[in-house]
Amino acid sequence: MTASEDLVADIARVAERDSLRIVTSESLTSGNLAARLGVGPSAAAWLGGGIIAYQEAVKFDVLGVDEGPVVTQTCAEQMARGAMRLLGADVAVSTTGVGGPEPSEGKPAGTVFITVATAGDAVTRDLRLDGPPEEVLQQTCDAAVALLAEVVVD
User: Fold this and answer.
1) Looking at CB atoms within 10 Å, which of 71, 97, 133, 150 has the fewest?
2) From CA 96, how far away is CA 29, in angstroms rounded?
3) Taking 90 as the threshold, does the pLDDT of residue 48 lie above it?
């Protein structure tokens, strides 16, 4: 098993034990994060679903993100909170950023924000990743799983 697969197994164990519903809210990762979590043990018991909010309008109109720049910590936090509210979750993990190869919103390719939100807290990581878009996406999924495990696993 890869390190990421080990972390997903740990997340699954704790989520099932504690009856947690975990959801995703993804822009940059386009559903890849939910797919990675979905192969975890007993995923049907704890993975509530996900929202792919690639277009800004979906972030604003569906998730309730404030209009404005979307490659920000605030956007990542609001995406997570919106998914929690819409999907009735205990925990949400969100991703937003610039996959590249070109900059966006004045931010260079590889600028990424990941948030894990719970009822009482939100933890966000601001990353600067290197590589072509597909590598940035994979690194973002790895970092999101690691942050989710950091928050959820004892």
Assistant:
1) 150
2) 8
3) yes
- Work out the end-to-end distance of the chain between its first and last CA atoms, rounded to an integer number of angstroms: 21
Closest Cα to residue 82, out of 126, 29, 23, 137?
23
Counting every residue, how long is the chain? 154
Q: Mean pLDDT, to the nearest integer, of 143-150?
A: 98
CATH superfamily of this structure's domain 3-9+20-152: CinA-like (3.90.950.20)
**CA distances from residue 94 to 23, 80, 84, 99, 141 in whole angstroms, order as listed:** 9, 5, 10, 15, 10
Position 126, amino acid: D
The DSSP element (H or E) to which 48 belongs, if any, is: strand 47-52
List pLDDT tens digits, range 54-97.
999 999 999 999 999 999 999 999 999 999 999 999 999 999 99
Are 63 and 78 a contacting pair, CB within 8 Å?
yes
